[in-house]
Amino acid sequence: MEGLNTTIANPATTVKNPEDYSVLNKTTAVVNDTENPVKITIILPTNAYFMAGIRDFTMTIVQNMTEFSEQWAYRFQSVVDELTNNAIEFGSASGKDIKISFVSKKGKYIEVYVEDSGTGSVKKTAAEMQAFVEKQRHIDPTKITSIRGRGLSQIVSNWTDSLEFRDNEQGGLTVHVVKYLERGEQF
How far is the C-alpha of 73 from the C-alpha of 66, rounded, in Å? Predict the structure, then answer.
């Protein structure tokens, strides 16, 4: 490829190394735009089958588009897993969709929005969910005897800097979490 000249988009632009502009080149995918956050939205059916892919995608996003350590990448993977599983299990009926949006600004933060359709088995408002999390947050996790029930109050609220619920106009909830990059959480 050395010395190959390729014209890209603008006939007046000549590129000596077209591989530098490849969508597969991770080094220039995010690094070149330090001013604007990157936003990626995924819409998927309400089906736990897709959770392995969301876990893998979350890990890829955190490792390649932020400066969080590997430990925090795994933690954030658990956060997204919990939020998405809740949307699938409680917020959206089978045959409906959930929407997951990742927003990241390298070296600054990562945030996730998980939106359900409100057609699931449990219909709660944003205020009810916030009250539930606050109540559960003060319970000693070793006293919880059920297999489930630790996610929002223990995992999500402890591993994020912000957790909020919003009622959607068309029904359902959007859960929004943010984790800011702080000293000790980097590579």
Answer: 9
Q: Give CATH superfamily name and number for 35-180.
A: Histidine kinase-like ATPase, C-terminal domain (3.30.565.10)
Query: Of 175, 151, 86, which Cα lies nearest the Cα of 122?
Result: 86
Residue-wise pLDDT tens digits, 112-161: 999 999 999 888 899 998 888 887 777 666 666 555 555 666 788 888 99
Nearest to 157 by CA among 85, 72, 79: 79
The CA R_g of the chain, rounded to the nearest whole Å, is 20
C-beta atoms surrounding 155 within 10 Å: 17
- Domain edges within the chain: 1-32, 35-180
d(CA 131, CA 128): 5
Q: Are 92 and 43 in contact (CB under 8 A)?
A: no
The answer to whether the predicted template modeling score (pTM) of the entire model surpasses 0.90 is: no
